[in-house]
Amino acid sequence: MAKDRRVAVINQKGGVGKTTTTANLGAALARMGKRVVVIDLDPQANLSLHLGVDAAEGSPSIYQVLLDELTMEQALRTTETPNLSLAPSNLDLAGAEVELVSAIGRETRLRDAIDAWIRRHQEQHGEHPFDWLIIDCPPSLGMLSVNGLVAVHEVFIAVQTEFFALRGLSKLLDLVSLVKRRLNPSLEVSGIVAGLFDSRRNLSREVLEELRTYFGPRVFKTVIRENVRLAEAPSHGKSIFDYAPESNGAADYASLAKEVVARAEAEDAPPSVEAAQGA
Ligand code: ADP
Ligand code: MG
């Protein structure tokens, strides 16, 4: 069976495109007919607002799921995009970082909730509840991000093609290794999403080169160009495909989604006869 696709979009630096990528990659995959669930793990709730969901404090959110007060099903909301649902967040989640510290099973809360949901869904409907699950992590490496890393199989690191882009990445990679060793052997850094790219700037091109040297083919070929439409879409509560379907931003995220799916399909495909013989 194909392994289910669960991705955490992470970088402890803010403003590098994590939320923009989660919202618009999620929407692009949904438009390709995939059943997509995105989870907002940032108390700032930018992802929720981006997708037009306002979960006021006290209303169902991923916060209660982490505290075992609600199931995933109870927290999920539909969005304007068919096939795309969201587990929203709000400022309540800021408390979770502290509240979880003394909780039993604190690192595995989110994974446990997702696994329980998958089991129930399988029993009731005879199928997996999603094709893709994408988690938007907060700009820190605390308990919330750890929960995100434990709940997925893959990490996409969002980086801004700017000076200092690689700064702090070793700390992030150390955390990923630690989580892999202790809590989640399936975890891999499988994608680097280079964003806010301005081809006119030498610096952008240099940083991209540096990323490719370091991470090799894990850097997606699709680079997300700087595009003002991507910055405007969140305040309209729409994905880029609903807000500005003709924009470069829409083209880039559609292209990224195709690349992401092609990679996944190549991994899931049984090895070809030539590959098996060549080994
Ligand atoms: P993070 O979630 O890592 O903090 P965001 O996705 O919120 O980063 O992006 C930071 C800011 O930059 C937001 O205002 C967002 O709208 C804007 N932004 C993100 N990607 C692009 C892009 N490719 N072009 C222009 N603006 C962008
Ligand atoms: Mg964000």
> Care to count the β-strands?
7
Share of residues in strands? 5-15%
Please give the CATH architecture.
Answer: 3-Layer(aba) Sandwich
Can you give the helix content as a percent range?
40-55%
Low-confidence stretches: none
* Estimated radius of gyration: 18 Å
What's the average pLDDT?
Answer: 94
Task: Give the overall silhouette.
Answer: globular
How many DSSP H or I helices?
13
What series of H and E elements makes up the topology?
A: EHEHHHEEHHEHEHEHHHHH
Name of the CATH class: Alpha Beta
Q: For the largest beta sheet, what order do the strands appear in spatially? A: 3-4-2-5-1-6-7
CATH topology: Rossmann fold
Largest sheet: 7 strands, mixed
Which structural class do you get from the secondary structure elements?
alpha/beta
Which compounds are bound in this model? adenosine-5'-diphosphate, magnesium ion
Q: CATH superfamily name?
A: P-loop containing nucleotide triphosphate hydrolases
Distance N terminus to C terminus?
A: 23 Å
What's the structural domain tally? Answer: 1
What does this structure look like?
The protein is of the alpha/beta class and 279 residues long. It has one domain: Rossmann fold (3-Layer(aba) Sandwich). It is built from 13 helices and 7 strands. A 7-stranded mixed beta sheet has the order 3-4-2-5-1-6-7, with helices on both faces. The model has no long low-confidence stretch (mean pLDDT 94). Adenosine-5'-diphosphate (ADP) binds next to α1 and α10. The site of magnesium ion (MG) has 5 residues, from α1.
